[in-house]
Design a protein that fits this description.
Elements lengths: L1 E14 L3 E8 L3 E7 L5 H6 L5 E7 L8 E8 L9 H17 L7 H16 L2 H18 L18 E4 L6 E3 H4 L7 E2 L14 H20 L8 H17 L1
Antiparallel strand pairs: 1-2, 1-4, 2-3, 4-5, 6-7, 6-8
Helix pairs in contact: 2-3, 2-7, 3-4, 4-6, 6-7
Amino acid sequence: MQWSDEAIVLALRPHGETSAILEAFTRAHGRHLGLVRGGASAKRRAVLQPGNHVRISWRARLSEHLGVFTVEPLRARAGDMFERRFALAGLNAFAAVASAVLPEREPHGPAFEAAEALLDAIAGHNFAEWAPAYIRWELGLLDELGFGLDLARCAATGSSENLVYVSPRSGRAVSAEAGAAYRDKLLILPRFLLGTQECALLPADLAAGLALTAHFLVQWVLGPHERTLPEARRRLGDLAARARAESD
């Protein structure tokens, strides 16, 4: 069996003395693993850094086998992120979440396309500019996995006005009026996720957005399998929370 596809590198781990196991998020074949012969060499590791865009060819005798990858570099992004703290945190969080959440060998084309745009943004912009795209990527991932949030109308009143909270149980929006008595138990809904009008982004909005998606990734995707939020994703949320505290 054999196929070729575009992919984003997620992780690389040594295998034997000279080879490595590559984990990649492919456009048409989902999250996929394969053996890269010679992947432990310095030259190959430079190509196989997380976030890099590559073309891979997979070959195996049977579909259930690990198989062997051959890799062709298409676009190197990793070097643009390694020297910037927030960019590196965003890259690591993306790779860790994709690895933890995406089912193996299950195509998710829209999530791949959004990931390509997200990584370009992380490589070329500052945190305040790419963080909303990161949060929307996680929301889109939840939606593709069948756990989309309903942020269009208030769960209690049906109104689309003054939506400021999200129910931590249902993932539905709640208006300021309906949620006033329960606000300590509700999640904050950042204004930029409503998409109704342009608004100035504040550090608090970004921290709230990351807390929102983290909650539902754990509650609906990871928790049922007794898994926790990846450490790299927690670090990104912590950085955003610190940025919020410094701005207050």
